[in-house]
Specification:
The protein is 46% helix and 16% strand. The model has no long low-confidence stretch (mean pLDDT 93). It is elongated. The chain has a domain at 341-485: Isoleucyl-tRNA Synthetase, Domain 1 (Orthogonal Bundle). The chain has helices at residues 20-38, 54-62, 67-84, 98-113, 171-180, 188-199, 228-233, 235-238, 248-253, 266-279, 311-318, 320-330, 341-371, 382-389, 394-402, 406-427, 436-457, 462-470, and strands at 4-8, 42-49, 91-94, 117-127, 132-134, 139-142, 145-148, 156-165, 185-186, 205-206, 208-209, 217-218, 221-226, 258-262, 288-291, 294-296, 299-300, 337-338. By secondary structure, the chain is of the alpha/beta class. Helix 2 packs across helix 3, helix 11 packs across helix 12 and helix 17 (436-457) packs antiparallel against helix 18 (462-470).
């Protein structure tokens, strides 16, 4: 019986077109999803759009559209992006869908029945951009304007009737939960941020608004809409057909294995979300990972700053798989990553053209000329086994993934690529034409190295990896992570299919 794995991206706010930050989160999630699949897991990968709230309502008004039409248009762009990025997501959730509204309303009713929600008056600082409430000590004044210290977004003073969630009640249960689940929040720096915030004291949280109407109505009071974050977070349940807890999706995949989010929404996922769930007697997710921002220069990419790097333009110029590789290798996962076209070009030249591409082309070309494009018979010597076995530690590799240590995983691949190229150089098969057994064994070893490394690269560059594996007649549905510990998967006397040049070096 297969193990189950449920991974989610943040659901994206479609107030404007997607940017590189959205692409990054989705690609990272796809990387984990694909790895888990080739590891033998039954994977459910969810992404989607968060379509309610005042920010959407205002953006729609500016465009002179009703909010639903506005969301339909931009959400479709995000949905199209999943295909452009070659994501393997199982579902795309929209918070304007009936299935989601049903789920969110059910959670609200449970919280209200348990008296975890009460009606009172709210007054405080609110950021429309962040859809978040801030305390006085989280506010700064800059250029005569009040802003959030956390995000830099403008805030406005709000006074209105509101429903409140008894968040203060859950301070100690949350701290106990964190203690009992030390890997619930990663990386460690984010965990420390959350602990500091919770220990400083939690106040009851406003969970409804009256000042706008674009949202899910509070079932017992239609004058209020459910706070966008209580609404949005419930999407992770909606996609599993909650509140039908007997549904196979829910039974197999909840609690979620990994919520992958940007660090700017950590508080909502690591404090409010588990508190809502615990209060509703629903198990919290197993892990929340808050990655860093994609920077342009020294600033976070954002629509308001106008420093967006369009992923579609980059893909059109350089290709999808090079972009996926670059983001996964060059951005230090968990930290902010400063990206540029120059760095991307350098990465393509050094890692893809000169390293991986070079290994594939020279070995396959040599096999074509000297082995008639047939997998040769072989007899390993000590050198062959040393290099082959250097890739065989599947437990070590699996641990990289389970700890979300992408950079260690990528460094391992790069290191093995350099070692494989060095092996082929040092063995000098072109000098062994009078020793056919040795020549064939070197070629066989090099072909197995390509097979093994390509399997590891599959979650990173799926299209490219499938092309390479197809040269060995290995189809995508037959890619098996555990097979890298086997040094003799390729069948002698089977045909090697032709492989076109994978990556062209970028001339500067």
């Amino acid at each position: 019986m297969k193990n189950n794995y449920y991974i989610t991206t943040p659901i994206y706010y479609p107030s404007a077109k997607p940017h590189m930050g959205h692409a990054y989160s989705s690609i990272v999630a796809d990387f984990f999803a694909r790895f888990k699949r080739i590891q033998g897991y039954n994977v459910f990968y969810l992404t989607g759009t968060d379509e309610h709230g005042q920010k959407i309502e205002r953006a729609a008004n500016i465009k002179k559209k009703n909010p639903q039409d506005f969301c339909d248009d931009i959400s479709q762009i995000f949905k199209d992006l999943t295909k452009t990025l070659n994501l393997s997501n199982n579902d795309f959730i929209r918070t304007t869908e009936t299935r989601h509204k049903k789920s969110a309303i059910n959670v609200w009713k449970i919280l209200e029945e348990k008296k975890e929600i009460y009606l009172s008056k709210y007054s405080g600082w609110y950021s429309v951009s962040d859809e978040a409430f801030y305390s006085e000590d989280e506010i700064m004044e800059e250029d005569g304007k009040k802003k959030s210290k956390l995000s830099g977004s403008l805030v406005e003073w709000v006074e209105e009737e509101s429903y409140f969630f008894r968040l203060s009640k859950w301070q100690e249960p949350l701290l106990k939960f964190y203690s009992e689940n030390p890997k619930f929040i990663l990386p460690e720096s984010r965990k420390n941020e959350v602990l500091s915030f919770v220990k400083s004291g939690l106040k009851d949280l406003s969970v409804s608004r009256k000042s706008f109407s674009w949202g899910i109505k509070v079932p017992s009071n239609k004058n209020h809409v459910i706070y966008v974050w209580l609404d949005a977070l419930t999407n992770y349940l909606s996609a599993l057909n909650y509140p039908n807890t007997d549904d196979n999706l829910y039974k197999n995949f909840w609690p979620a294995s990994l919520h992958l989010i940007g660090k700017d929404i950590l508080r909502f996922h690591a404090v409010y979300w588990p508190a809502f769930l615990l209060a509703a007697n629903i198990n919290p997710p197993q892990r929340v990972y808050g990655h860093g921002w994609i920077l342009s220069g020294d600033e976070k990419m954002s629509k308001s700053k106008g420093n967006i790097l369009d992923p579609l333009e980059i893909i059109n110029l350089y290709g999808l798989d090079p972009l996926r590789y670059y983001l996964l290798k060059e951005v230090s996962f968990g930290n902010d990553g400063n990206i540029s076209e120059e760095k991307l070009e350098n990465c393509i030249n050094s890692d893809l053209a000169n390293n991986f591409g070079n290994l594939c082309q020279r070995v396959l070309s040599f096999a074509e000329k000297n082995c008639s494009s047939i997998i040769p018979e072989h007899k390993f010597n000590k050198d062959d086994l040393i290099i082959l076995n250097s890739i065989n530690d599947i437990e070590k590799i699996r641990t990289f993934i389970d700890n979300q240590d992408i950079n260690q995983y990528m460094n391992f691949i790069v290191d093995r690529l350099f070692a494989s190229n060095k092996y082929f150089n040092d063995q000098e098969p072109w000098k062994k034409k009078n020793d056919v057994i040795r020549l064939n064994s070197i070629v066989y070893t090099a072909l197995e190295l390509i097979r093994k490394i390509t399997i590891l690269l599959y979650p990173v560059m799926p299209t490219t990896s499938v092309k390479v594996l197809n040269t060995f007649n290995i189809n995508e549905d037959k890619i098996d992570f555990s097979s890298i510990k086997n040094n003799e998967v390729l069948e002698s006397k089977s045909k090697i299919n032709k492989l076109d040049i994978l990556f062209k070096k970028i001339e500067k």
